[in-house]
Write a structure and sequence with these properties.
Elements: E1 9-12, H1 27-38, E2 42-46, H2 51-57, H3 60-63, E3 66-70, E4 75-77, E5 84-86, H4 91-103, E6 110-114, E7 117-120, H5 124-128, H6 130-133, E8 138-139, H7 142-147, E9 152-156, H8 160-167, E10 173-178, E11 183-188, H9 193-203, E12 211-215, H10 221-226, E13 229-232, E14 246-247, H11 255-265
Parallel strand pairs: 1-2, 1-12, 2-3, 7-8, 12-13, 13-14
Antiparallel strand pairs: 3-4, 4-5, 6-7, 6-9, 9-11, 10-11
Helix pairs in contact: 1-11
Length: about 270
């Protein structure tokens, strides 16, 4: 029996993977996912997005059958049990980062996600970065922001000095740069897509060797290293394919659907 025949679960990144450039899941892809579900495969999505954003882009008939990993693993929902996993950044470290950004007058680069609510110090960050933020933030004071349990700290187009400061915490936090370095995502140290998927799979008695992951950016690397099969999209960032077992077409070529159709036909 080859490794593909051992697969019991499928994990999909969203942007650049399951979603095309119009931020939609094609009809063909939806049908293929339902076919996988009907064959008894466990379906997961693993994304940097918050829950509210995922509900906007994933059809409800698909979402009701998947377990979801949000914020790169900091907040998760198990659709079978209805349970959640919630991991936050230590308040002492979050406060240091917030204080530093405020002292540098870069409040228009900073926001925090906490249990599906976006918080910020100024609405300017939303006006300047709607591509990343989707909804206006809840505006709070600096003291209030520092006290909020943060699943994720986001820094969008911050200065090189601030980036260097954030990176000084790399031994204490999980820090991921995406969107060609435009977006810095900060989570608790042991938070990752892989750790979250592993925790959810453990509940279903599924080994990570029995998981196939699809992705296109560096925040998928931990999944690629942890899963039995990893599939890099044709549009993946340069270099990611070196860590993948195999490749699929691009997200605009319905690469996920085409790959799974071939796999299911064997």
């Amino acid at each position: 029996m080859n490794s593909l025949q051992l697969i019991r679960a499928l994990v999909f990144d969203l942007d650049g993977t399951l979603l095309n450039t119009q931020k939609r899941v094609s009809e063909r892809t939806q049908q293929t996912l339902m076919r996988c579900f009907q064959k008894g495969l466990h379906l997961f999505i693993a994304t940097a997005r918050p829950p509210r954003s995922v509900k906007h882009v994933i059809p409800s008939q698909i979402l009701q059958h998947v377990s979801a990993v949000y914020y790169n693993g900091a907040y998760c929902h198990d659709h079978r049990s209805g349970g959640t996993l919630n991991f936050t950044i230590p308040t002492s470290i979050a406060t240091k980062i917030i204080d530093y950004i405020c002292r540098r007058n870069e409040t228009n680069t900073l926001s925090i996600e906490s249990e599906d609510i976006l918080y910020a110090l100024s609405n300017a960050i939303y006006e300047q970065n709607r591509k990343h933020m989707f909804v206006p933030p809840t505006l709070v004071s600096q003291n209030t922001l520092s006290a909020i349990p943060a699943n994720k700290i986001l820094l969008i187009r911050c200065s090189s000095e601030s980036r260097h400061y954030i990176m000084s915490f790399k031994d204490q936090l999980n820090i991921v740069e995406t969107d060609a370095g435009e977006l810095i995502q900060v989570m608790a140290k042991n938070v990752s897509k892989a750790s979250a998927v592993s925790a959810l799979c453990k509940r279903q008695n599924i080994s990570m060797n029995q998981v196939m992951a699809f992705g296109d950016d560096w925040n998928d690397l931990d999944l690629f290293k942890a899963c039995g099969i990893s599939v890099a999209m044709g549009n993946a960032v340069p270099g990611l394919e070196k860590y993948a077992t195999t490749r699929a077409g691009t997200n605009d070529e319905e690469g996920v659907a085409a790959f799974l159709e071939r796999w299911l036909s064997h």
